[in-house]
Amino acid sequence: MDHDLPGYTFGDPSLPRSPVTMEELARLKLTAGLTDQDLAALRRAGRVLSDRADAVVDSWRQAIASVPHLVAAYASAEGVVDDRYRARVRERFKRWIEDLCFRPWDQAWLDYQHEIGARHSHLAKNKADAAAAVPHIPLRHLIAFAAVINQRVRPFLAESGASADEVEGMLDAWCKATLLSVTLWTRPYVAEVVW
Ligand code: HEM
After folding, report:
1. How confident is the model at residue 4, as a pLDDT?
2. Is residue 149 lining ligand 1, measured as CB closer than 6 Å?
3. Residue 4 within a domain
4. Dihedral of the alpha carbons of 3, 141, 75, 66, in degrees to the nearest 10
5. Which of 17, 82, 126, 172 holds its CA 20 to 30 A away from the CA of 135?
6. Span from the CA of 23 to the centroid of ligand 1 (angstroms)
7. What is the distance between the alpha carbons of residues 27 and 38, in angstroms, rounded to a whole number?
8. Does the Cβ of 141 fall within 6 Å of ligand 1?
9. Which domain does 104 fall in, by range?
10. Average pLDDT over residues 156-177
11. CA 34, 35, 38 angle in degrees (round to 5)?
């Protein structure tokens, strides 16, 4: 457990268990076509991206900065951006990269994915940081932003010195893993019967 990182509660015994089962996670991996080869490439991608984590987050945040309805997620209803909130979330963003690429996708990881989904939604947004920002990120924007998350890691992988084939392999694996993670985040947004 990492009590050093404000708001990061991975592995915390008080964290609710994800309603998604390990069996369902295994099926989702099959749906996403995620292979053992991908998991190895994901670890290589993780080494590149975690070394450059601040620059990676800067790149994602540049994309947010140009879209007013995304900037609003870190701001009050009056539009005042909360820099303390942004700074705390940045550190957990960086930890997510490491968790996604290096941790086993076990029950604790599954539980924290559920928590991250809730933190984007009205269920728990702002709570970890006692922030006073807008209370909810619409599901449609959560999903659509995966396009930016994925596209913007390519230059970092390309600059790593890996061959073109290795870069494609790392990017493929990263895209599948990100989509799978975001898929788990959608669970607290929707009724079980439709999920
Ligand atoms: C694929 C899409 C996205 C990814 C991969 C992503 C990733 C993350 C991660 C890793 C965290 C920290 C989770 C933690 O607390 O440990 C986070 C929190 C947050 N993200 Fe996203 N995010 C995505 C979409 C969005 C969008 C579209 C917005 C809108 C601007 C957004 C705004 C936020 C905010 C405001 C928080 C803090 C939530 C809180 O109050 O705890 N995210 N995100």
Report:
1. 85
2. yes
3. no
4. 110
5. 17
6. 26
7. 16
8. yes
9. 25-189
10. 98
11. 85
Amino acid in the structure at residue 119: R
User: Is 32 touching ligand 1 by the criterion CB < 6 Å?
Assistant: no
- Cα(45) to centroid(ligand 1), Å: 20
CATH number at residue 49: 1.10.490.10
Residue 2, pLDDT above cutoff 90: no
Residue 92 Cβ contacting ligand 1 at under 6 Å = yes
Q: What integer is the mean pLDDT of 150-175?
A: 98
Q: Ligand 1, closest atom to CA 10?
A: 16
Q: Residue 18 falls within a domain, yes or no?
A: no
Per-residue pLDDT at 42 exceeds 90? yes
The residue to mutate among 49, 71, 89, having the most atoms of ligand 1 within 8 angstroms of its beta carbon, is 89
Cβ of 10 less than 6 Å from ligand 1: no
User: With 50 as the cut, is the pLDDT of residue 1 above it?
Assistant: no
pLDDT (tens digit, 9 = 90+) per residue, 71-94? Answer: 999 999 999 999 999 999 999 999
Number of domains in the chain: 1
If DSSP codes are grouped into helix, strand and coil, which group holds residue 87?
helix
Specify if 138 maps to a domain: yes
Is residue 7 included in any domain, yes or no?
A: no
